[in-house]
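Write out this protein's structure.
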Amino acid sequence: MCGIAGFVCKKNQKPPSKLLARMVKAIRHRGSDDEGVYIKDNAALGHRRLSILDLSASGHQPMPDTSGKIWITFNGEIYNYLELKKELSGPWQSSSDTEVLLKGYKKWGKRTPEHLNGIFAFALWDAHKKELYAARDHLGVKPFYYAIQNGVFYFASEIKALLVAGIKTKPNDKIIYDYLAYGYYHHTNETFFENIHQLPAGCFLLYKNGKLKIERYWDLKDRVLDLSNWSGGKAAGDFFHVFKDAVCIQLRSDVPIGVQLSGGFDSSAVTAMVHHIVGGQKNFRLFSHVYSDHKDKEIPFMKALAKGLGWKWEYITVSPSDMSDLAEEVLWHQDEPFPGLPTFGLHMLAKVCRENKIPVILGGQGGDEVGAGYEYYMGAYFLDVLQNDGLDRMYDELNAYGMLRSISDEHAVLRFFINSLSSYFLGGTSADASSFANAEVLSRNFIKQSHHERPDFEKPFESALQNMQYRDILYTKLPRILHSADRAAMAYGIEQRVPFVDYRLMELGISLAGRHKIHSGQQRYFMRQALKKIMPEYVLNAPKRAVPSPQRQWFKRELRPWITSILSSKSFANRHYFDQKKILAEYKAYTEAPIISHTNSFHIWQWIHLELWLRKYFD
């Protein structure tokens, strides 16, 4: 896990070494163990190393092949590198996975990523062809940004490295409108910075003689199979096998590993599988973050899992002042908008891991997408049941959902049903199906200049539930989760591994029939069946809970002075995005509302975050 940067100049143009040095310095936090550069012909590659596999100097990057004509700078991990070593011919100069990429390229060329299981973003300079070849992992766990300016192609792990290279940019109002009006972000290859793009997940690029070509090597919709005839036992069994293998190969490391526990099903499942594979806690550390002055409903589940497995559990506490005190630092590391308070917890947890010399941590990100675990998936599932099994069966499933969650009010169940249908048809909602965008406070001029129709994401399947999973995996949910997790961990030189984001699990999860994902109101059904022998029952069968963030309460009370100072500032008034009077009135109504338990606070976070982001990067 590292940081990469570089550029390719025009033919016969010598790359400036000082420029490369500035770019590499901008991402030094991503790798504190080593630094390297390669400058030859019109190409420049830079690298910051975080040593995970092969801690010796043999893993130094940029790394050449045996001919010295092919050089690579690589960020990430190839989890199946040992299997690939058996397939590829030696001799081997190191025990690193980087060398596997070099040999893989010589054998498979641009199709190399099709053979990889891992999280990766790399750039490879082929001096024979005078061509840059770069690729990004299947789901986009690792970042790869690029820009073209004055005939020079620039790339980096983080946008800040492109900014110090002198890329001319300004706020991308098209993306900002999607963010503020529809609640979408990290849903496209454009970024919040105009002229700066990201290589799409599952793609590779070729850059030669000033021409850029991007091709897809993995397409999720083409990998979905018809598994409608599978039994429940077959679904659970295959999931268990693939999930176990995903965790197993992600435990390959030459440094200590920690596990990140949120209390939810997915991180608990990862912890339980680690316990099952290694036979106990061994030398693994189990970390969580909790919130001060808040009745955190996840704590009992964290304690139950740790006690049930016999693990020692450690946690840190996030307080309201952490959000205001760390806002500028976290914003700088994230580069672009992120989900709010939970991201601060991830940053603080990563810092603790670094202080404890644990440079690798496993997390549960991606499990909801695999198992259809978000509550708003229920509306799409109900549509499928209605279409395939009729109205009576749909009512049975809807009532089962209400009973499982102890909702006796039929009107409340109906409201949820309507909201979850809105999530399917319109999107832009939180996990509990509540809306987190408020376009009514945008300025008339901004709307007039930037308005466009809501992005219409591809729906390649007949199943509404599969279409929602597909949308979340590729556009509206997983990309922003992975962005937040990577920047939070790498801010302190920590490698974040995400077993559920193994592309095999994504393919399996979306392929399974709806009845295996949701059964009698219970979501992730096949996952629960698969893991019932290795997870404590109290955690295993707990219903899905909204993210236990006190952001709603803190924005109402503890953080009110901080938020008010931002929203009432002169700089905020001068932005062309908002109607400040409406914003202040809306926030005042929010703080004075007697009940906020069902009120989403993300729109308030959008306002203050955008203002702080503009101050940081453009004022």
